[in-house]
User: Fold this.
Amino acid sequence: MAETQRILVTRRWPGAVEQALSERFDTVFNGPDDPMDAAALADALRNFDAVLPTVSDRLPAALFEGGGLRAKILGNFGVGYNHIDVAAAKASGIVVTNTPGVLTDCTADIAMSLLLSISRRTGEGERQVRAGEWTGWRPTHMIGTKVTGKTLGIIGFGRIGKAMAKRCHFGFDMDVVFYNRSKVDPAEAARYGARQLATVDEVLAIADFVSLHCPGGGENRHLIDARRLKIMKPGVYLINTARGDVVDETALIEALEAGTIRGAGLDVFEAEPVVPERLRALDNVVLLPHLGSATEETRTAMGMKVVDNITAFFEGREPPDRVA
Ligand code: DGY
Assistant:
């Protein structure tokens, strides 16, 4: 029965979720909340029935090789799971689950917040006021770019892409176009005020704002590279709340420094938590510490999804959010 299962939670989780886990399982928590290194994670896979990782853990193929693993399920806290080599986990008989659905609105809210913040220069303005450098209102002070009525290009029309389209079209009168790997029914797209284009390049060529909502890893690594940054419209803003590796960060820095693109709002980075000094030195970026799902309601809901997934698994039912 579930109570006998040994569970390892790799980071601190919201209190209500830790409580639920400790009531159902023999659970070990990470009191200090320090990220676990490869050796600690390898050890966890050998000594626990379930390991509950987050995006801050790296679980490459090497961790699943060599046999002797006790873990039967990885209950990932998060919808994205490109930090786990899912094929290798599956090959060693480990089930992987994620937490879709519950973070859609909050992640779209952060994307919207970045879009508004970078185009209206609110980060820069805030820094100026805090530094005591504001000299007063004037018609030419800190001029940004109007958002209402512009064209938004979305890459990846899943739940979060759709939620972003809805906000931008119905809230800000924007024309919304998107690229999605599979064909979306035009009637479904129209519900979000959006229309599908055939290629990423077509979207990039007409968008005033580009917002990324596709998964990271695999073929999406460096989807936005130097070539694609060049085909974007002059004056475009890039918003990334997906995964850092979807953008070639070095190429992005060069485009921002050269003014090829006007600005970027980033919640995710290639080597989190490292954010390159050259990026931090720029004024035409808004940089957030991966806050997409960071609300009390959403983080609790994400944790409860993990609880549901591993409970189902250990009770012999299909976990609702199985990805492998
Ligand atoms: C997600 O759910 O994918 C968030 O980015 C945290 O991992």
Summary: The chain has two domains: 2-102+296-314, 104-287. The radius of gyration is 21 Å. The pocket of (2R)-2,3-dihydroxypropanoic acid is lined by residues 54-55, 78-80, 103, 292-293 (CB under 6 Å).
